[in-house]
Specification:
The protein is mostly helical. The protein has helices at residues 2-16, 26-40, 43-48, 57-75, 85-98, 101-108, 119-153, 156-169, 183-203, 207-223.
């Protein structure tokens, strides 16, 4: 029931929107709540799970990505998609900056070093996290929310920080160690998100934060 209501409301919001230079509108907010937030609460996964052999997260994330791309096209949002050597260097620099979070995470007890070194596993993790985590999360918080808030606020960094606060708070329900809300996760996500947001501001290319985000999550999966 909630799955179909969410999908129908998301499609309705997309059809109600149009290309515009306006900032964040009520239809934008309603779309993000009906698509992203319902997905984030795992309602889509719970609905799809009985009919799927395997992880229902992947079809849920695929549906979300399609809705987000359709919304951005209707809204006239251009996240910037290109391949360039300079942007590839920015990805590596951003990953270098984020290395500081490893000793912090270990010191907080959030990370525990337990590597699973396998070329196949590393490649699979990098691909999976980039496509099914990096793409939807960066489209929502950088491609849509950050871009629209920037139109409202006329201040790119303020828009980046505000959208990143919302990004960090989506991790309160990811308990990890049986703790709710998980403020350690929120804090580390906020720090990482600042780098994602900064890389997008610097490049105007959504593939940069998508790649950084996916690789960071893959590194955590492989080594921690």
């Amino acid at each position: 029931m909630w799955f179909w209501l969410s999908i129908l409301l998301s499609v309705f919001c997309i059809l109600k929107t149009e290309k515009s230079e306006r900032g964040l509108t009520a239809w934008d907010v309603l779309f993000l709540l009906s698509s992203w937030q319902i997905f984030n609460l795992k309602i889509w996964q719970a609905y799809l799970a009985p009919g799927i052999n395997g992880n229902a997260y992947y079809p849920s994330a695929t549906i979300l990505i399609l809705l987000l791309c359709w919304f951005m096209k209707r809204r006239g949002l251009n996240p910037g998609i290109r391949l360039s050597a300079s942007d590839a260097k920015l990805v590596l620099k951003s990953l270098g900056v984020l290395l500081i979070l490893i000793p912090i995470g270990l010191g907080m007890g959030f990370l525990n070093f337990s590597p699973e070194i396998s070329l196949k596993f590393m490649a699979s993790s990098a691909l999976t996290y980039t496509i099914f985590v990096g793409i939807p999360e960066e489209l929502v918080f950088r491609g849509i929310l950050q871009n629209l808030l920037e139109r409202n606020l006329k201040n790119p960094w303020l828009a980046a920080i505000l959208s990143n606060i919302l990004f960090a708070f989506i991790y309160t329900h990811l308990t990890g160690q049986g703790i709710f809300p998980n403020w350690k996760y929120v804090g580390l996500a906020f720090a990482a998100g600042l780098v994602y947001a900064g890389s997008y501001l610097k490049s105007s290319n959504i593939l940069v934060p998508v790649s950084v985000h996916g690789l960071v999550d893959a590194i955590r999966d492989v080594f921690f």
